[in-house]
Write a structure and sequence with these properties.
The complex is a heterodimer of chains A (474) and B (418).
Chain A (H helix, E strand, L loop, with lengths): L6 H5 L15 H9 L17 H11 L3 E6 L6 E6 L14 E7 L4 H13 L1 E4 L2 E4 L2 E5 L5 H14 L4 E4 L3 H11 L5 E5 L4 H11 L3 E4 L4 H14 L4 E4 L8 H18 L10 E2 L14 H17 L4 E4 L4 H14 L13 E4 L8 E5 L2 H13 L3 E6 L6 H6 L5 H10 L2 H4 L4 E4 L7 H7 L4 E4 L7 H7 L9
Parallel strand pairs in A: 3-6, 3-12, 6-7, 7-8, 8-9, 9-10, 11-12, 14-15, 16-17
Antiparallel strand pairs in A: 1-2, 4-5, 13-15
Helix pairs in contact in A: 4-5, 5-6, 6-7, 10-11, 14-16
Chain B lengths: L1 H9 L11 H11 L11 H16 L35 E4 L13 E4 L18 E8 L8 H4 L9 H11 L4 E6 L12 H14 L4 E4 L4 H14 L6 E6 L4 H11 L2 E5 L4 H13 L7 E4 L9 H16 L9 E4 L7 H4 L8 H19 L1 E6 L2 H14 L22
Parallel strand pairs in B: 3-4, 3-10, 4-5, 5-6, 6-7, 7-8, 9-10
Antiparallel strand pairs in B: 1-2
Helix pairs in contact in B: 2-3, 6-7, 7-8, 10-12, 12-13
Classes of the chains: A alpha/beta (474), B alpha/beta (418).
């Protein structure tokens, strides 16, 4: 079970001057946001004064999550991963959504490289009022040449603000790239049994986070982490290996789960770091190229499975939207706060300045449903949307679970004043709620109930072809 | 604690695994006479980080400067072994058998077993997975079809008029473990709703035509579903097939009576509410439905439409069962088919890529998430999604692995030419 922090646990280490320099009203408000991981200690300028040194250290210790948070990159696209305080998200919530990286390599022609990096940087998919984005590029050294690798890193650094993962096991090649972009805090990939001493020095010298790789050998992984921690490094990322071919998938899920359980529930400090998964490794399979679509599918659903089992960073190769869409959606789902169902206020909403002649729609108050319908009502020229309080539960489930009954709809229509908003005396209910239409018509007396489409994308054509309300005075 | 113990062990000999062994350090300290050591408990970590600079300073005048620069930090591999946290649980999940052979009072040619877990899903370092999760594909009856997305329909075009052939195709060709005959036409809100005795006749015919275990899906009306259950239970008595489903708003006493009399399995369906799950399961158990005939379904929100809610609820249910709550000690069913309510799965939108891929992935991801959260039975629609989920179930349920995947060195992903 996670250790639950209260604002007081943190407040007592803050300066208590209520200076407001952090942007919060007072130190208590800042403390509340600190425990929710919405702000970082660095936003409090006073705490870094010498006289607060002990308090700062004590506070860092209190706030340190069993899986440490690690920041990669600089500037407004910097990304923080890890910071996990529980294994199961229902125990509290998962902070810091999985960061998604797309791979590029140092033998790509410059224009191709720049194009891909820009595509990754500018990628946006809008879903239920949120902008879903990609977070990083993983630059792989295919050439073996320090110059080529450094040049590619330099190009990415100059052309984009995206954080980078620099991937090579050769310390000379790595250092050449770090000379070029080490000031941008890239994630170094990776220290392993052979090269770790050189990589420890590089991570220390350039002050960059370091991946620790020990594929399929968790004792080696722990040994390396122990040694690197002793050396003084604390911004680590764990790579137990992402085996995806055949039964390797079992081993990978098993390793990720054991690592996260052990880090959090056993408080094993050597393993208390974010996990990196590389679904792109599916392309190592000799059969990968034979059936590209099926390999891409595997990359997609395995990425989702790895996210369910604790991956804090994903490195992907495929860039097709249909590969990314399930991953981005699942990330958005998993990283919502389970304590707060995604809902909107149960009330009446106006879309595009509706009038007394505009259609009146009724639905549930799940945020997902509302935003979808809102889009489609907009496309259909606007109207009124009334949301019934279903506790944020989706429409299909609310209808089945008797949380969207004729009673409730009628009552909400009255309470929200919706019945006075339109003169055509008709209301549109969702297709999935068809079975309540008769009962609702009885309750609303001289009103007409239209059964709308099952999917709201058909609303525009429904309004055009089916919705024929009788206007008053006609 | 464990860490501290290891530290102590390490600090006992000169092979402490650091630049300078602890014993050497101590002798250095003594030689220098600058630091007195009395009643001081030394932990290796402190030595390294806090005493080391002092030592070097103190030793400097007497000895030549050390070969390494002063900022050089220790770089010796400290070998430790990984010990995973291994928990034990007081509860275990009941095993449910689907189907009964002639020896067991039925006529099925084979049976399926699910459940029986003694640890969270696929925690094979704790306990083996007793039975792999199974996949059931949908067959719709009696005489109508629901509006099916084109991407699904195309796989069943040749068998749409023959439900038994449809079922055979699902199992023989698409690899489903079993099928569900959904009696959607019994919905009383339909104009020509199939009467319960008619539905029972249809099930009787199917039970004759296919020899495999199967499930029976009801339409979702509390009164009609009970009627259907009562009629159907007569024709499949002893077959131990699954009735899906019984809900809290049905007459549970009458339902339990029909179920137990004919030895049927049942899916208890609740609606995204863990208290409802608990109440329904407890009531059915109290009414005499054996644990070994009960499967629980908390409702599945598809990917993007509440899947995380289902995911966390299933995790909670499974953990509660393992921790001793009897109402949660039954296998879990997950209707991954609900993924198809999401337009991302079926809509023809060019910018989202071909729906031929998008759809099955959407359903597969939904099923996989359910499985990782504890689902033992996956109800599905698209053959490809079913194949993906069944394959993952087979792989994840392995308790002993062939190590052949190691033949491809993982590190090679960095330099691969693709």
């Amino acid at each position: 079970m996670p250790k639950i922090l209260r604002p007081m646990d943190v407040y007592k280490y803050l300066p208590g001057t209520n200076c407001g320099k952090c942007g919060e009203a007072n130190c208590m408000a800042f403390a509340t946001k600190l425990i929710e991981r919405q702000v970082s200690i660095e936003q409090c300028p006073e705490i870094f004064e010498a006289k607060y040194k002990d308090k700062l250290e004590a506070m860092r210790e209190v706030l340190r999550a069993p899986v440490k948070d690690v920041t990669i990159g600089v500037g407004d696209r910097a990304v923080t991963v890890g910071g996990k305080v529980c294994v199961y998200r229902h125990e509290l919530t998962w902070y810091h959504p999985t960061a998604i990286a797309i791979d590029v390599h140092d033998e790509m022609p410059e224009d191709e490289l720049v194009k891909r990096v820009e595509q990754v940087e500018n990628f946006v998919f809008e879903r239920i009022g949120m902008q879903l984005k990609l977070d990083m590029v993983a630059l792989r050294c295919v050439s073996g040449s320090p110059e080529k690798f450094a040049k590619a890193a330099d190009i990415i650094g100059k052309k984009s603000k995206l954080p980078m993962i620099l991937c090579t096991f050769n310390p000379d090649v790595m250092e050449e790239a770090l000379i070029a972009v080490g000031d941008k805090r890239p994630l170094i990939y990776a220290a392993n049994e052979r090269n770790w001493k050189e990589y420890a020095k590089l991570a220390s010298k350039y002050q960059c986070p370091l991946t620790v790789s020990a594929p399929g050998d968790l004792s080696m992984l722990k040994s390396l982490c122990r040694s690197l921690r002793k050396y003084g490094l604390d911004d680590l990322v764990l790579d137990p290996g992402t085996y995806l071919v055949g039964e390797g998938f079992n081993e990978t899920i098993n390793m990720f789960t054991m690592l996260r359980m052990t880090a959090i529930e056993k408080e094993d400090k050597d393993l208390g770091y974010p996990l990196i998964a590389v679904p792109a490794a599916i392309w190592l399979s000799p059969k990968a190229k034979e059936d590209e679509a099926s390999t891409k599918m595997q990359e997609s659903y395995m990425a989702c499975a790895l996210m369910s089992r604790y991956a804090d960073i994903l490195v992907l190769h495929s860039f097709d939207i249909w590969v990314l869409l399930p991953i981005l959606t699942w990330r958005q789902n998993l990283y919502t706060d389970p304590r707060v169902p995604l809902s909107v206020k149960p009330t009446i909403y106006e879309v595009k300045e509706p009038t007394e002649k505009s259609p009146l729609y009724v639905t549930c108050n799940s945020a997902l449903t509302y935003f979808l319908i809102r889009n489609d009502v907009e496309a259909a020229g606007g109207g009124w949307i009334v949301c019934v309080d279903t506790g944020g539960i989706s429409l299909q489930s609310s209808v089945a679970g008797k949380r969207f009954t004729a009673d409730m709809v009628a009552e909400t229509l009255k309470e929200t004043g919706a019945l006075e908003k339109v003169k055509h005396k008709s209301v549109i209910i969702p297709g999935y709620a068809a079975r309540i239409s008769g009962e609702l018509e009885d309750m609303l007396k001289d009103w007409k109930v239209f059964v709308g489409p099952r999917d709201s994308s058909a609303i525009p054509s429904f309004i055009e072809k089916v919705w024929k309300p009788e206007m008053e005075g006609k | 604690m464990e860490e501290a113990k290891e530290e102590k062990k390490k600090s006992e000999g000169p092979s402490a695994g650091r630049g300078i062994g602890v014993a050497e350090l101590l002798s250095l300290l003594e030689k220098s006479k600058a630091v007195e050591l009395k009643d001081v408990e030394i932990v290796a970590e402190e030595l390294t980080f806090e005493l080391l600079p002092v030592v070097l300073q103190a030793a400097a005048p007497a000895a030549p400067p050390p070969a390494a620069p002063p900022e050089e930090k220790p770089l010796e591999l400290e070998r430790v072994s990984f010990e995973p946290l291994t928990q034990t649980y007081v509860g275990e999940i009941a095993e449910v058998q689907i189907g009964a052979t002639s020896k067991e009072g039925g006529t099925r040619s084979r049976v399926i077993k699910i459940g029986g877990e003694k640890s969270p899903p696929f925690y094979r370092w704790e306990q083996p997975t007793p039975w792999r999760p199974v996949v059931a594909l949908d067959v719709f009856g009696v005489d109508i079809l629901p509006p099916l997305p084109k991407t699904i329909k195309q796989w069943y075009m040749d068998v749409m008029d023959d439900r038994a052939a449809w079922a055979e195709k699902c199992m023989r060709e698409y690899g489903a473990d079993l099928v569900t005959f959904h009696l959607i036409s019994t919905d009383p809100s339909l104009p020509n709703s199939t009467p319960a005795p008619e539905a029972a006749k249809f099930i009787d015919k199917m039970a004759d035509k296919i020899s495999d275990p199967f499930m029976i899906g009801s339409a979702g009306d509390p009164n009609k579903d009970l009627e259907v259950l009562q009629e159907v239970s007569k024709v499949v008595a002893g077959e131990r097939v699954v009735f899906a489903s019984v809900t809290l708003d049905m007459d549970l006493e009458a339902s339990a009576k029909a179920l137990t009399k004919s030895n049927l399995d049942v899916i208890a369906l609740a609606f995204l509410d863990i208290n409802q799950v608990k109440e329904l399961n407890s009531k059915l158990l109290d009414l005499g439905v054996p644990k070994n005939n009960l499967i629980t379904d908390p409702s599945t929100g598809g990917l993007g439409y509440g899947l995380e809610y289902t995911f966390s609820m299933m995790e909670r249910m499974r953990l509660a069962g393992l921790k001793g709550d009897p109402s949660m000690q039954v296998p879990i069913s997950c209707a991954a088919t609900n993924a198809w309510a999401a337009r991302e799965a079926w809509a023809k939108i060019e910018e989202w890529g071909p729906r031929e891929y998008r759809g099955p992935i959407w359903e597969a991801v939904t099923g996989l998430a359910g499985m990782l959260a504890g689902a033992d039975l996956l109800m599905m629609m698209h053959p490809l999604a079913a194949k993906i989920v069944k394959n993952a179930a087979e792989i994840l349920s392995k308790n002993k692995l062939k190590e052949d995947w190691r033949e491809i060195p993982y590190e090679n992903w960095v330099a691969m030419k693709i």
